[in-house]
């Protein structure tokens, strides 16, 4: 069972159709990692595979795909724009555990409280969000501190039926990705120094929060140990700080 492989395959093919997609370096030891978990009949191999791409406007497009059979299926797919664009992040967290599915899909804004920014990047995608609300209702409690990083078009849902993931969630994923690349296509580089500084700080704020609160940390530590996990989080998944340090 590889529930999210079609999502990943689609995303890679679609991005290639919209942009010149180059590879993004994945640090040694993170391309693929395996662990055995569970006992007896419940023993499964959990494999984590990493993917990295970049384009002229997008600094890092990366995916972590965790496959553990019926026990665990996860796709974390995030796009980080270059710092001279005011584009939002694209984020898809698709998680399947024995207890059900957890789906989070959004274009996370750099400046959530600015009306001009919302008009540019959130309002155009609200109709997409609204078209899925009936089939993919709000998934309930979400950490209050996290809400500052999500847009009003944040699709957070807990479908009980795998068929809903394979159909409606997949359709929403495609629609959000297309809308995101429409934004990317029309994005113009920012030249104002103050705005550039604000973009860098907004990106760092988001990445620091995500690195600190990464919900996958406990899972990765259990499978692969603390050292590998922390390096994976800071050196690949949320690596902007490292990248900036290497430049300056």
Automatic annotation (TrEMBL):
GO-annotated molecular function: cobalt ion binding; phycoerythrobilin:ferredoxin oxidoreductase activity
Catalytic reaction list: (3Z)-phycoerythrobilin + oxidized 2[4Fe-4S]-[ferredoxin] = 15,16-dihydrobiliverdin + reduced 2[4Fe-4S]-[ferredoxin] + 2 H(+)
A Pfam family that the UniProt record links to this protein: Fe_bilin_red
Entry keyword set: Oxidoreductase
Keyword Oxidoreductase: yes
GO BP terms: phytochromobilin biosynthetic process
Gene3D superfamilies in alphabetical order: 3.40.1500.20
Enzyme class, spelled out: oxidoreductase
The protein's name in its UniProt record: Phycoerythrobilin:ferredoxin oxidoreductase
Organism: Mastigocoleus testarum BC008
Taxonomy of the source species: Bacteria, Bacillati, Cyanobacteriota, Cyanophyceae, Nostocales
Gene this chain is encoded by: pebB
């Amino acid at each position: 069972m590889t529930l999210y492989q079609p999502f990943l395959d689609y995303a890679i093919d679609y991005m290639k159709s919209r942009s010149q997609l180059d590879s993004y370096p994945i640090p040694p030891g993170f391309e693929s990692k395996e662990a055995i978990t569970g006992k007896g009949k419940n023993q499964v191999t959990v494999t984590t595979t990493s993917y990295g791409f970049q384009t002229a406007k997008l600094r890092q497009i990366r995916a972590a795909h965790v496959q553990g059979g019926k026990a665990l299926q996860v796709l974390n797919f995030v796009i980080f724009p270059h710092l001279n664009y005011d584009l939002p992040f694209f984020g898809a967290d698709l998680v399947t555990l024995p207890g059900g599915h957890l789906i989070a899909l959004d274009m996370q804004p750099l400046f959530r409280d600015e009306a001009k920014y919302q008009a540019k990047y959130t309002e155009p995608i609200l109709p997409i969000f609204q078209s899925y609300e009936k089939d993919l209702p709000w998934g309930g409690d979400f950490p209050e501190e996290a809400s500052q990083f999500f847009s009003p078009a944040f699709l957070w849902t807990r479908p009980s039926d795998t068929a809903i993931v394979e159909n409606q969630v997949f359709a929403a994923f495609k629609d959000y990705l297309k809308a995101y690349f429409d934004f990317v296509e029309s994005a113009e580089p920012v030249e104002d120094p103050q705005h550039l500084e604000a973009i860098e700080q907004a990106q760092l704020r988001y990445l620091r929060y995500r690195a600190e609160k990464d919900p996958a940390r406990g899972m990765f530590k259990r499978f692969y140990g603390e050292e590998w996990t922390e390096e994976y989080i800071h050196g690949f998944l949320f690596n902007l700080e490292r990248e900036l340090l290497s430049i300056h």
